[in-house]
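job 3f2a | input accepted
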Amino acid sequence: MRAITYSQYGAPDTLTLTDVPEPRVGPGEVLIRVRSASVNPVDWKVLAGYLDRLMQVDFPAIPGWDVSGVVEAIGPDTPEFAVGDEVIAYARKDWVQQGTFAELVSASVRMVARKPAALDWNQAAGLPLAGLTAYQLLTRLGTKEGDTVLVHAAAGGVGLLGVQIAKAFGARVIGTASEGNHEFLRQLGAEPVAYGDGLAEQVRDLAPEGVDVVVDFVGGVLETTRAVLKDGGRHGSIADGTVAEAGGIASWARPDAADLQALADLADAGRLTVPVAEVFPLEDVAKAFELSQGGHVRGKIAIEVSR
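job 3f2a | predicted structure (307 res):
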């Protein structure tokens, strides 16, 4: 099968389109014919070696953890799915080697949910990792109806999903973003505030008693978080491990079929959508990585593998 691989850490130009053996399908696993995958910042960070002390990488490695596609085969004792089912997955294994930037990928059923009919293949591929990142942090913080939630980096790939998920939970949402993204956030149902000097004051103007929940999807904002959080409020970050020392939660998304299905159900209920900024063919994954590294993409970057 065709796949994008790399044999050493490096820049996006080390990625190569090549032919590799098809993955095996073990008990409790499905083999997915990939329709689309999506790029997340963690993909090029792993490629660059930034996570070498954290994650085992076996070369040659295929990057990518997000996938939407069709079940091609099932392994032994896999009653949850059948050949032909349309699915999505956050297909992160316990090591980096057989990723989703390929024509086929295997995944445990603990990672797989049914594709939401409301999303096309590229949108669906953008949901798993970013959606689970936001959903699991908001859930762990006990976000509920009536809460006021501050979302740092609300127009980013995780943040824009976090805004929609918090709104679906019944929360009021304040979102930080550059001025150019404020109308976009209003369309998602958030009240925008601008980055920079006076951010805490802007939030306090909207929520004089403080906010109940703060979710940080960018890092470097702990001082602002503490300044606007009401007594007894909850906060967490995916980008700042020091929040635990300040009473917060440091979060990393886990593959979880039930959580992913909950996100798919929100999409089918019309309460969650996935904006797609750019779509690249498989052979142009390096260009997609470079675009992601620029850090100014509003929406997900999709890799269309097949039609």
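job 3f2a | The radius of gyration is 19 Å.
job 3f2a | closed
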